[in-house]
Structures are given as structure tokens and as C-alpha cells.
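Standup notes
- HV: blocked on the assembly model, inputs below
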Amino acid sequence: MPKGNSKDKSYKPILPGTSDWPVVQLSRNRKQFIAKVVEEAFIKITDANPGRQELREELESTLYQEKLRIKQNPWRVDPRDDYRFWEHVKNELVELASEHEAREKEEDILKRVVSRYAHEIAGNFKKTRYQLTREMVKFGFARLLNATRVKRFGAFFRNEYTLRDKIQITGKAKQLRRLARKGTVVMVPTHFSNLDSILIGWIIHVLGLPAFIYGAGLNLFNIKIFAYFMNSLGAYKVDRRKKNFIYLETLKMYSTLAIQEGAHSLFFPGGTRSRSGEIESSLKLGLLGTAMEAQRSIYMKHPNGDGKKIFIVPVTINYNFVLEAPSLINEHLERQGGEKYYVESDEYSTSYNMIKFLIKFFTKGSDISVSIGRGMDLLGNYVDDDGNSIDKHGRFINTRDYFTSNGEINADKQREEEYTRRLSQIIVKEYHKINRVFASHLVAFTAFRLWRKQHYKLDLYDFLRLPEEEMVINYDEFKTQFKKARKHVFKLKKQNKVNVAAHLKGNIDDVIKMGIDNVGMYHSKRPLLTDKAGNIITKDLNTLYYYHNRMNGYDLEKYI
Amino acid sequence: MTSKSISKKPVGVIGAGSFGSAIANILAEKSEVLLYARDSNTVRKIAENKENRGHKLHTNVTPTGDLSYLANSCDIIFPIVPSSAFRSMMQQLSPYLHPYHILIHGTKGLDISLPPGETIDSVPFLTRENIRTMSEVIMDESVVIRIGCLAGPNLAKEMAANHPAATVVASHYKEVIREGEKLLRNDRFQVYGNSDLIGIELAGVLKNIIAIASGALSGLGLGENAKGLLISRGMVEMIHLGKAMGGEVEAFVGLAGIGDLVTTCNSTLSRNFTVGHRLAKGETLEEILSNMEEVAEGVNTVRIAKKFIDTAKLRAPITEALYEVLFEGLTVDKALQLLMRYPYNVDIDFL
């Protein structure tokens, strides 16, 4: 398989000692930091609930939701005293029921709830463990690769293939390193697989960046091996079951303050993994909003202009296959039917499954690419390598000015929400731009479109229920259509609207073959195959739909 | 911010046409106003006589011919220039603008953005990406994103005469609406806020098409039933087109939509109405345009809307008929016969 244009470069760490890392400093002052989160979140929540009954109602609805969660959707990682804690809150609230003026007591309960949440969220970064994990990942991955690529057991201990061969890093890596020195980086990758967080952790290391903090789903901590990685990599915990206002405010405050402290941060703005296989088309604004708030706070606290600037760096990850694809797409299709509530299912529910997956992943050999986008400021203006924001006409912009009204920097919640919405749209555009089209994505797209067109009168669900035996495309027809699609992709590339993997160029038959060989290559039922006569067939239309969706948003359907 | 009553800085108005001057006068009741005019004679005349186009200007209005001075002196600027000159004005203004600026425009027209060398007649299609509202032009050309627009029944002559009136300030930013209210509102001038910026801009723009048609009906002397018919069908057409171009229905049923539509359809003071009226009297478009003092935005809007309708495969009978009258020599009488034979089936199908 051609390697693409990834350069085998090694990057020196940008900070010489780990003790200089913001995340290390944050964990050193963990206690004070959590105290600050509690204090500020508390102020924010009480400010938002000034009325006589408001705070009590907030607490009551939180209690109700938490009890429901404990009953309906408990997880292994939940603390043992969960039930007891909330039962206690309930009793206290019952006692208050007859009192009309009990603001003080209500605030007391609130403080304990916020504090409990903040402790749960806070990461537990351990420097020594981080270093160990890092070495393990490096060693383990590299050995796996060698053994499987060279197919001789002796190769296990040789360094012929490195992880860098398999995982191509393209885009603005150098700029990212510079920006991480100049200011605080908020990295926002697309999210397809649970593997993403480990992958990104590894990328951050390869690029010589200090550890980032990131919000990892609490469910990942169910799996011991993941928990180990997460705890080592500066993760903080995000519990997506908890949707109550108090929890969300505490979580956002944690992120805001950490970014303000200069901790580089990473979150998946899509929220959860893309169920449909599409590149995220709309983003969750909560955590993104914390970066906005942090930037404005920094400007307010540093009127002389020496506050750090925050840089947003979009990242698009591309896989030829996603382990979870079949179940993700099924969830997506189910949810399209109006299902709002869903329980997240986890394919690697145990460490054993996870390791099995990793081995499978590396033995079956297929590339992953990580495209790093150009850095931008909070308003979506690109920045140069020195971190200066630049407008469309090449003029410098002072980002502070966006938060200025009548000559002063001021907080305006609605304005910041609007800015965040705008930023999210710009990030989505950037994802599509830096996305690298793989042959596997394009063959999936072409085949699915051709079948869909044959049955255009059926709605999607009826179409997906058609028997797979009927699905056959003559190779030559497929080739013609694939050619058209590829041509258009190259045209888009010229317009700077998408990127392509190097392997997409070259002889069309080879490209098609590579695409078909790689698309969803280790699913038990392959989404795309060739039969003995060389025709294109499928064994799993749903999963094919998933991989096809990857090319949504480029108007390619006009051409096939 | 709310503690401060009014920014101490002057407020800028770009464009000394009749609407620009009227807005400058309203603003001047509360603030110092810098009024930009491109033409140095106009600047001089205003400075000497405090008068423009026969209307008295408030003593707080100071004319200027210098965009950089205006941008440096004012945080809030009201650009009110014809849509055909809007982009080039923004290009000149843009180097002096910063993200702290707030721009609230008062231009009811569209701009088209095409590949170099292409014109509206040469391109086969006109998609939404090619059509820019004025707020989109501001964003294309400058770093300003706190943008608003003024829309509503704002006949400049009536405003100059201090008759009661109202306007809508539309913006995605409450801050912009607040500032607009603070600066504009007085005993005779009411201000409403709306967050559907694009919808409100489109309502103001598309209404001009119907205003021309209304002028034509009046030119034919056809009475009130016909006018009622036109206003209601015109409204439906505006909503269909407006939705296709990214506005919400709500924007069209408010002050900037129906309010403005009723006003312009009834008013002999409106330029668009005048165009229609004179067409019905038998003049050609060229004759009318050659001796009009200010641009009737509706003419350009009809041209753009027609191409968009064709591209998007929509049906908008009034616009299409008007296009033929304006550019293809159809007589107003014939157009009316066509419209009366048009098979409408349902009255309202968008609520």
C-alpha cells in the first residue's frame, strides 16, 4: 500500500521537562483547582437561579434525574455511595419542604452536589504513570506491527515498521507545535471510533506536545485498560447520562478554568461517535462555548494584552474501517425513527475484547490518517505561525476586539453563544476541507449510490431491507461511475474543498481494488466484495451505507 | 454596558440619500452624527446649509467625505447606500473596520457575486450562494460580524416630516438590537427587534417587487379589490421565495413584511411604486430610469429573483410577469390578463 505523503519526521518535545507541562501543574494543585471550580460553578448556578423557589426546583429536578439514572442505567464506574448520597439529598429536601425561606440550606446542598460532581470530573494526571503508558503504547504498537507485517515471529523485536508507517499525520503539524508554545491549544477532532482517544493521545506524543486534558466519556472508564490510559493521559470524566443543569455547569466550569490555566485541551465537539458514519455536520456547543468564555475571561483579566490566546485546531481522522460500524449504523437507523433516548452500547466491554480488537486491527493492516487543520482563533479566523489572526484580505485582526463594546471588553452571554454557533459551522467546513478521501470511502459511496438509484422509489428503510443477493453491479459500469466520482473529488481538491489520500491517484483498477479490499475489511460480513465473475456485491448493506455516508456533504450524488 | 446610556462616540451614517438623511436626523436627536457623502459638493452643501435634497438636517449632523475618519470616530455605523454601490463602498470602508464595530444597514436590495467575467445574463444558473443580502456582503468584505439591518415601512419623506413610524432592527445579536433601539427610539419612532436577520432582509427586498406591481395596478386605475388581491397574493409569493432563500415565515408577517408591503403598495411616495405607475402609463423602463433621482431597488431585485426562480424551479407568477414587463416589452395590460388566468388552487399553504 502506498504510504501517502507522511514524512517520517521525529519531533522533539516542545517543553523539555514534563514538570513544565500545564497539565502537570494543574494536577499538582489539584485540590485548589477543584475548590476553584466548585466556587465559580456555585456562583454561576446561584446567579442563574435568583428567584425564591428556583434553586429548590433546580435541586429537586436534579435529584429526580439522578435517581432515575441510578435505577435505569447504572454503570460499573459509578461510586458505591451514589444511592446513599442522593437519598440523603432527598431527605434534606423533604425537610425543607415546609420552609419558605431556606436559601441558605439550599445553597449548602448545592455546594455539596457541585463538589461531588467536580471531584468526579477532575482528572487524576500522574506524571510517572503517563510516561509508563506512553512507552507501553509505543512499544506495544510497534511490536504488533512488526510481527504482523513481516509475518515472522522474530520480527517482533525488530524495528522495521513503525507506527508512523501505519498512521499518517498530514497537515499543519509544525504550526500546531508552534501554537502550543505561543498560547493554549484546543484540539477538536472528528469522532468515529472509541479508538480515537488513544490514537489522538499517541499523536500528541509523537508531535512532542505536552499532554492535553480531555473529556473522555465516563463509560470508557468501565473498561480497565481504557481507564488506565485515560487516567494517565490527563483525561477528565464526562458522564453523558447526566444532563442536569448543575452537572453541566460544573463540567463547563472545569473546562473553562483549565483552559484559562493554559492547559491544552481536546474534545470531540460532535459529542459522541458519529453514528451515521458522516463527518459531523452539527456540533455540540457546550464545551466549545467554554473555550469562548475562557478567551474572553483571559482578555478581561489581562487588560494590558499579555493574556494567552486560545487556538482552535480541527482534526479529521480517517479509517478504512471502524470496528463499531455495524452497531453504530444500526443505532443511527433506529434513532432516525424518532427514538430520543438510547443506551450507549460498547463493543469492547472488557479489556480482553479491546486487546483482541487491537491485535485484529494491526494484523489486518490498513491505514489510518490524521489530518491536522490550520489553527484558528475563536472566531474562526485563520492564524499564522505566530498566532496572529488574519482576515480574508491578509490583514491582522485583534481577536480582543470581538469582545469589545463601547471601548471595553464585556461579557455578553448571547453574543458568545452566537459566536460559538458560528465557530462550530466554520469547524465543520474545515473538517470537510481537510478530510482525506480514501479509495475505500469512494468505492462504498459509488456502489451504494448505484444500488440506491436502481431502487429510488423505495424509501431508505425499505431499500436497506432488500435481499443482498439481488445486489450486483457489473464491474465495467462500476468503473465508469467510480471514475466520474473520482474526477469530481479531484476537482474539489483543486478548489481546496477536500483533501485526498495519495493512493487515490494512479491506475483506476488498482484504486478500485484497494478500495474494495480495505473497506470494512474485518467485519464478519463485508460491506463490499467482488464475486468470482468480478462483479461488485455486498454482504451488508447497512454497513455499506455507513461507509458511504463518509462522503456526504460534497454534493457527489449529483455525479452518480 | 447597560449602565451607560449612550455611547459618547458619534454615530456614523454612510449615504446621504433621502433615507440616509432621514435616519441621520433621527439619530441626531440623541447623538452626534457623522454623515458620509461620496460627493464633495454634497458634503460642502450640508456643512454650509445643514440641508440636503431640500430637507433640513439636525444641527448634530456633521457631514464628512472621509471614510477612515468616520470609521475611526464611530463604533456604530449605519450604511445606507444603494445595493449596486454597496459592495464597493464596503471594500473602501473595510480597511478601517475592526471587529468591535457594529454595522446596521438600511439597504433593501440584493447583490450578486459571480465568477470573474460573468454577468447575470451570461450565467445559466443563479443559486443562493451567488445571491448576497447586504449583511452577507458586509461579512464577505470585512471583519465585522455584529451586523444588523433596518427594515419596515420607512418612507423617507414621511420620516422627514416627523410622522409616526416604526422600524425593525434585525440581528443575530441582542446587543446590536439593543444598541439600535437606544439610538433610534423616540416619541414618534418605535423600534422592534427580530433575530431573523436574513428573513427580515429578504422581506424588505422582496416587497419591492410587489410595490412595482402595485404601482402598475394603480396606474391602470384598477381600484381597491385589485389591490387587496395583489397584496395577499404578493405576500404568498414573498413568503415562498423568502423561504427558498433562507428566511422564516415569521419575518414576513411582521412589520418588515406585511407592514412594509401595505405601506408601499398604497404609497405614491415610494420609488418602486412610481416605476410601476409610470410603466402602466406607457413609459418604458429606460425612460423612467433616466429621469429618476434615486434608484428603485425593485428593478434589480426582479431581475435577480427571476433568475433564481428559474434555477430553483419555483413558481412566482407576479415576479415572472413583472420581469417580462420590465425587460421583455410585455405591456402591463397583457401581464395582468396573464395573471388573472393563472391557475391558483389554494389560498395559503405555508402556515
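- HV (later): unblocked. Residues 197-219 of chain B form the longest helix (23 residues). Residues 57 and 92 of chain B are 26 Å apart (CA to CA).
- Next: hand off to the docking folks.
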